[in-house]
Every structure is written in C-alpha cells, then in structure tokens.
Amino acid sequence: MNVGIIGAGTMGIGIAQVAATNGCKVWVYDANAKQVETATVGLEKTLTKLVDKQKISAEKMTEILANISIATELKDFKDCELVIEAIIENKEIKTKVFTELENYVSESCVLSSNTSSISITSLGAELRKPERFIGIHFFNPAPLMPLVEVIPSLLTEKTLAEKIYNLMKEWGKTPVIAKDIPGFIVNRIARPYYGEGLRIVEENIATPEQVDEAMKTLGNFKMGPFELMDLIGVDVNFAVTTTVYKDYFYDPKYKPSLLQQRMSEAKLHGRKTGKGFYDYSEGAEKPVAQKDDALYQQIFLRIISMLINEAVEAKRLGVANDEDIELAMQKGVNYPKGLLGWGKEIGYAKISETLQNLYEEYQEERYRQSPLLRKMN
C-alpha cells in the first residue's frame, strides 16, 4: 500500500515507521523540509538501537528505511491510497492542507487526520469528497502504543471505518471505533484523572506527590496524574482540556484548572522544560509524599469515581461499545483495568454515593452523575 504522511514531527515519523515496518511504501512531507531530514536521521538512530537490542534484524532496518521516501511537495502523494495528516492542532491550517491535497490525489485515496481534539466532521465537511475522510488517532509514541482510535465523521462513507479498523489490525495495532465527539474515547474519559487531581491540590487537600502516590499504591496506576502531566507536557495537557471544555459548550465537568494555566504561562511544562510539578534538573530530589492512609483512600475514591462516571456516560451515549471503552483506556493510557469492570468491582452504588457526596458538598454540576450510573449494578 502507498501511504502519505503529512508532518514529520514525533507523531508523523512514528506513524511512518509503523506503516513502513508493515511493508507499506511511505512518503513523508513537511512544510519545513529540514524537519523531514532531522526526523529521518532520528528514525535511523531509533532503528539502530532496536537492532542493537535485537528487537529487529539489520535486514529489517534496511527494509524499513528503504520503504520511506521524502516528499518535497504534496503533489508527490499522487499515487497514495491513504494519507494521514499529523501536523499542528489548528483547524484552519489542517483544512488548507487537505483542500490542496485533494487536487493531487486520486478519487479513491482515503484522507485522514491524526487529530486528538478537532472534530472530524468539521475537517471533512470542507472537502469536495467528505465521504473519503476519517480520523485515525494514534497515541504517542506511535510505534510502541498499541491503541488507534478510528473516528468516522457524520459524512464518512459507511464501510470506511471497518476498512481502516482492519488495516490497523494488519499493522499490529489495537483499533477501536469511536463516535466523533470532543476527545473521542480516551481524551474524554481521562479528563478527570488530571482535572480532579488538580482540584484536590488547588484546594490544599493534598500535595501533588500525595495524589500521585495514592493513585499508584491504591489504583496500581503506572504514573500519578502529576507525573503524567509532566511527561505529556503541562501546556499540552492544558490545551487538550481547554479544547474539550470549549467543544462541550463549557460543560463544568471539563472545566480547566487555574493552577495548570499559571504553570503553562510560567513555562513550567514538565520534563521538556526541566521543571513542572516536579523538578527534573540535575541533582534535584523528588519530594517524598507524606503518607496518610485515610487521605489516600479519599483521593483514590474521588478520582476513580469521576473516571468511572465518565466511562459509564460514554457507554450511555454510545461513544463506543463496552469492549472498545475498556480496551481504549487500557491500551491508550495504560490504565491497569477497564473502568466499567472496575466500577463493578468497587460497586456502582459506592461510586454513586461518592459522587452524590461531592455534589452536595460543592453544589457543582461538575459532580453530576450519569443517569445510567444509578441503574448499574
């Protein structure tokens, strides 16, 4: 299969690697020609490390690199059967690229976006053939993370989602099909993991390290919300939350955090800037959480209840089927268990009671329950 990738950032070159590893001929284009060169040099280094670790053979490395070509203009995509765009999260810029691309590709070429937060329907609606447009959302780093969200728009041809779903399986990925709603499955359901953690710290109930420790020890999460925000980028996480909040017509459930906004403004973006909620400079010591079992229990129950409520609401709205909701959270953000199953394990009545208590305490719509939650058992 001939595949075009627009954007040679981390995501773009990662997706190119996945396609090339699976025998596709790949063309990579970036408006900044230098970026493509930098990305291909970086990919060569990555593959060399994989050879050294005996994860792939030297022959496989040669084959992968031979499958990737640099495109100098969008016209070079004329023979592609699938084009995946992975550029800046800006609707106007993406639309401009797609409308130009339509002039060069064949009528049967599938066009797609790797966007994590922009409406697939709104991007596709600008095209002459919106029925060939679909969302294919990989997770970072694309070669390692198994999950791919496949998102048909309201205008996408009915059988296309299944075709892309099957292609992703052939590429060794774990695909799920999601409705075109803000945040799709993962970025919608995961919002309380960060949002509620931030709220707890803003209210001086606990410190970031206590919240992280509670979620790791009681929930078995690999990383606490603050460690994870530092890894993702505090600014990136804030931008996604802001987009989801705005796209849900300012639903209080997704309200961004002032603390996170101030951190973004101060350029305390986490690991990439050397300082975020934690200090990553050389010799800096990570603060040790002051252990408090009762507090840890309170933190865990509050955050997990919000997450389970989001998963139940996604089920109620048919955002995806139960299996895909469970798979998405485990394969997309490494949750230790599927949230619907976790709710059953803790007891949906307990989750409902926790949210009701929070609602009564704060008098905020943020803590309203999914109508389906009370009926679950």
Question: Might you state the CATH topology name of the largest domain?
Answer: N-(1-d-carboxylethyl)-l-norvaline Dehydrogenase, domain 2
Series of secondary-structure elements, N-terminal to C-terminal: EHEHHEEHEHEEHEHHHHHHHHHH
Q: So what's the CATH class of the largest domain?
A: Mainly Alpha
Helical content band: 40-55%
Sheet of most strands: 8 strands, mixed
What is the beta-strand fraction? 5-15%
Helical segment count: 16
Give the tally of structural domains. Answer: 2
Rg over C-alpha atoms, rounded to the nearest angstrom: 22 Å
Unreliable stretches covering 5 or more consecutive residues = none
Q: Distance between termini?
A: 47 Å
- The total of beta strands comes to 8
Give the overall shape, derived from the CA principal axes: globular
How are strands sequenced across the largest beta sheet?
3-2-1-4-5-6-7-8
Average the pLDDT over all residues and give the rounded result: 97
InterPro entries: 3-OHacyl-CoA_DH_NAD-bd (IPR006176), 3HC_DH_C (IPR006108), 6-PGluconate_DH-like_C_sf (IPR008927), 6PGD_dom2 (IPR013328), NAD(P)-bd_dom_sf (IPR036291)
Pfam family, one: 3HCDH
Domain 3-hydroxyacyl-CoA dehydrogenase NAD binding: 2-180
Protein name: 3-hydroxybutyryl-CoA dehydrogenase
